[in-house]
Write a structure and sequence with these properties.
With 349 residues, this protein is an alpha/beta fold. It is built from 13 helices and 8 strands. An 8-stranded parallel barrel has the order 1-2-3-4-5-6-7-8, surrounded by 9 helices. Helix 2 crosses helix 12 and helix 3 packs across helix 4. The N and C termini lie far apart (42 Å). The protein binds 1,3-dihydroxyacetonephosphate. 1,3-dihydroxyacetonephosphate (13P) binds next to strand 3 and strand 8.
Length: 349
Amino acid sequence: MPLVSMRQLLDEAAKGGYGVGAFNVNDMEQIQAIMMAAKETKSPVIVQASRGARQFAEDLYLFRLIQAAAELNPEIPIAMHQDHGNSYETCKSAIDLGYTSVMMDGSLKADGKTPASFDENVEVTRKVVEYAHERGVTVEGEIGVLGGVEDGHGAGGSGLDHITDPDQAVEFAEKTGVDALAIAIGTSHGAYKFTKKPDGSVLKMDVLLAIHKRLPNTHLVMHGSSSVPKDLQDIINKYGGNLKETWGVPVEEIQLGIRNGVRKINVDTDNRLAITGAIRKVFAETPEKFDPRDYLKPAREAMKKVVAQRMVEFGQAGHAGDYSPVSIEQIAKGYKDGSLSTQPLVTAK
Ligand code: 13P
């Protein structure tokens, strides 16, 4: 199956009432782990690469690997997404390469660190939407600012610093025409999200519910959604690691989000933890080994297990065969003739 538009994938998820995990990749083993999980659970999937990943792997290596994944798994709808594009140029380069979706994170300036003004965010996101939609490519925007830093991108600080204002979310969606909207509800990138199991004082699900009420037809995106499971932390620490006690986003909160408009859930850290734990175990238990396959294979297996579990928990499992891919050219036509509307349905306060 060719790579599919993320918009189609999210529209289908909305129809089916489920969420779709968006898993970050840097290399072949991570892509294989995702595809193994998708195949096993029969799930449509979003694979995403940050700017750091594109640099690390070199654009073409990574993109060709995704094309190989699509060719080898014709029964799985796959959208290839640029995670946290920092500028028009970054998004354009992903689109020109063949990505079927981009995130223009205009919540930060192009340095990827300094919060941008609302108007700056609207302007750059709108520009990306124009370029992308002409080519049938999906756009995710962000309003409010996430906490933490991922691959050098992020304002740092707590996830509570720039929580999304529901009124601004409505105005942003209307002015930009984005297909999906990332909102800030207290989560942050990385392992250190919360110092105890999060409650409503730090994880603002009420803000998410308020935004969904105002924008019932907009696909919402939850970033920083790793659950940072204790068992994965324990494996790392058991085999020589040194992680401090920490909490992630409980799966049941994500599921509450999915019942209220969340269609894309970003997960990176949980997979990093699984990979690192598996590699540490091999190093600690069999220090005589030196063939990379001896630790990359268990690492890939450990990541596959986490991804497959999330696919079941998010509800995307079993939905790979529900629909046939619409070509990117057809999607572009839909944006042009208005049949693929991005004007959100707004309800009164
Ligand atoms: P985590 O660090 O919680 O996995 O979040 C990843 C993410 O949001 C990528 O954009």
